[in-house]
Fold this sequence. Notes:
2 domains, mainly beta, six-stranded antiparallel β-sheet, disordered N terminus
Amino acid sequence: MxxxxxxxxxxxxxxxxxxxILILMSSIVFLPSTIxxxxxxxxxxxxxxxxxxxxSNPNLYVSAENPLTTNYFAGPMVxxxxxxxxxxxxxxxxxxxxxxxxxxxxxxxxxxxDGNWYGYFADRNQAIAAANTAxxxxxxxxxxxxxxxxxxxxxxxxxxxxETVGFTIARGGFGSINDTNNGGTKISPSNLPACTNVxxxxxxxxxxxxxxxxxxxNTNIAGFAANVVEENIWPVIQxxxxxxxxxxxxxxxxxAGGDQIVNLTFxxxxxxxxxxxxxxxxxxxxxxxxxxxxxxxxxxxxxxEDSWTWGTxxxxxxxYYMAFDRxxxxxxxxxxxxxxxxxxxxxxxxxxxxxxxxxxAPQGVVVAKLQSNGIxxxxxxxxxxxxxxxxSGFSVPLTLCELTPNSGIFSDYDDGGIADIVILNxxxxxxxxxxxxxxxxxxxxxxxxxxxxxMG
Length: 456
């Protein structure tokens, strides 16, 4: 069976995530100024390896199943469901589609080139709210083209989405594409179109941007036989109504040997599940300020690393999704797709999380500077401040990128350990800067250390 989305790659960021778990109880990213550091991490992270997701079922994988977060998901998070069953995994054999339901409503599954069966779902209202912030094809929180539950469109005979409250396609021309630069319109639950044909499906570019590393479909004629239309609209995100949150969500694979079930909760993420960590309590001059943030709600795409960039100034706080791709190259940055989401956090079910601010000089002395690395691209402006193409230096841009796909753990450093922030060479001892996230304040304190060398 295949429940591990990516094989382990021995690079800096993944090794760091492992070390984070191994030494967690004795290492805190920043010194919390509002809570007792000795108790801040107590019981927070059990044995957990963010590179690999372990399922509680032999053949059913659900991306939001995670003992670290007790199976919570929220907002416009996309949930990936995989059926990995050796009885139905051959590429050159035609099987009946495995029956998977979400709260007793059918989730249609399609076979990938690895033999596993895939389905994706999200909350309808949250998907719509997120999509309405996206203004360009293939950028931001773009969910693709929306279709209503009364749609007659089907990529092939016998495959429909009638038990959902809507669905989205990766490419399409149904007039519901939320691409305002190309005639798209804002959408709502009441105006999802009844899609009836494949206008433009084969010619338009990828619209959807919240599933970026999906498995391709099995086109073997002797097997699943995905056709050209299916390939071009894939991945399809099936939508359900979880609006009466907290909503229990049951994913059920009706296996011949007995149902395999994963129970989720759609609700605001409890604050106790959100934490900040690092490998030291003090930072000497020239130190990379490496930090990790655990916040599962920032994990929108279950297949690829998500990236979030803040303008961390308390007086001009901003937030952007995928300003940079996972290699630090501009994605939305410098384009109209760079949409500030800070005013949408309540709509997206964020509670006290989501907003991140910095006080760069609480004692009147600046002790650190921003820099480019493998997760963000910065340049110096005329005032000597580091900025992005869209975020000014006065806004103090900071990017966090997910350590591994679907981990919900985000770091400010790249594969080589280079962080967004570095302590100045002449930073004075015991001076600091502070970061506030989830209503918790963390201090980064400059420390000088003496070493003793004994030779014999």
